[in-house]
Specification:
335 residues, mainly alpha, 2 strands
């Protein structure tokens, strides 16, 4: 299932938005992205705090309930396919995992931004907006490459590892549960990307939930980058991993910076590996290769994890049937 999903991502890439379930969920989140504070006309600091609390309470409900929608749809889809044939259920689960991935599109866009910084800065500024949310107009060519590489490292966690790990753990037990878990994580990521901003109190809970969910995937992604490029990079990255405001994104970004021996900086926010030069065109090309190899490392680990879980599940399932046969054999020996 994991191999099929990864192959589909590499061969097909992301479906167009009109046919992408993640984009459909994004439209639902867009409908939830509004003022939930009511029609209270009171003014003053106390009234502002009251409205803020209302927004945050609604935000908790959004964070808890909204990701259950894609999770439920994914589970029903896999169960319906499995009712036709077990093989169809496995294929359906792989399809769900594929739809939560975005590796090929990430690498292609990163590569396009890096290439454009050499000949057409305006095109680079336009394309990099698909990767980052910062103001791009004042950025130099080197800073645009930095932004693209930061996003490539961070999105290795968001776009692959975060959904891959729970899927690998649950797939040997229940393909429908694995698909639901992957869809749920993608739902949490989407909520955070659309609502998790300081000026949106109703997105605070979504941002906190995403921080919790991404804790392990971000660090596993950093480890995958280090294995793919420089095993010591993760150790050196500890110095800057906590520089970004996010508790997680700094780990893969700082690890990539150290692996490539380049500086990655978001003006006024963080500066990773600052004693080195900004990435060149060649560094950008190397970064795409490193993130791609890191993804392959993550997939191989996920497959090994799934095989290990399957072995444990099989042993647990067979053990009750083996015990009586062993007892019978011992009785024959005694006789």
């Amino acid at each position: 299932m994991i191999g099929l999903a990864f192959s589909l991502d590499l061969l097909v890439g992301e479906p167009p938005n009109v046919a992408h379930p993640v984009a459909w969920f994004g439209r639902l989140v867009g409908a939830l992205d509004r003022d939930w504070s009511g029609t209270d006309d009171a003014t003053g600091e106390d009234a502002d705090r009251t409205r803020d609390r209302r927004q945050r309470r609604v935000g908790v409900a959004i964070a808890l309930l909204a990701p259950l929608v894609p999770a439920g749809v994914a589970a029903v889809f896999v169960l319906a396919a499995a009712a036709l044939a077990p093989f169809a259920g496995a294929v359906a689960a792989a399809l769900v995992l594929f739809l939560t991935m975005s590796l090929r599109s990430l690498l292609e866009l990163t590569e396009a931004v890096v290439a454009a910084t050499e000949t057409d800065l305006e095109t680079a500024r336009e394309r990099v907006r698909g990767l980052v949310g910062r103001e791009t107009a004042p950025l130099s060519a080197a800073e645009l490459r930095s932004a693209a590489l930061e996003s490539a490292a961070e999105n290795l966690a968001d776009g692959l590892v975060a959904t891959l790990v729970p899927f690998a753990v649950l797939a040997p037990i229940s393909p429908s549960a694995a698909a639901a878990a992957a869809a749920w994580v993608k739902g949490v990521n989407t909520l955070d990307s659309m609502l998790g901003y300081p000026d949106k109190p109703h997105g605070t809970a979504s941002a906190r939930l995403d921080d919790f969910v991404m804790w392990l995937p971000a660090r596993l992604s950093a480890l995958a980058i280090a294995v793919a490029a420089d095993p010591l990079a993760l150790w050196r990255a500890r110095r800057w991993a906590r520089a970004p405001p996010s508790p997680n994104s700094g780990w893969p970004m700082a690890t990539l910076a150290c692996a490539l021996d380049v500086r990655l900086r978001k003006p006024g926010v963080y500066d990773l590996n600052p004693d080195t030069p900004f990435p060149t065109i060649a560094d950008g090309e190397r970064a795409v290769s490193v993130v791609g190899r890191g993804a392959a490392v993550a997939v191989l680990v996920a497959v090994a994890l799934a095989v290990g879980v399957d072995a444990v599940v099989t042993d647990v399932a067979v053990a009750p049937f083996e015990a009586p046969s062993r007892l019978a054999a011992s009785e024959v020996t005694l006789r």
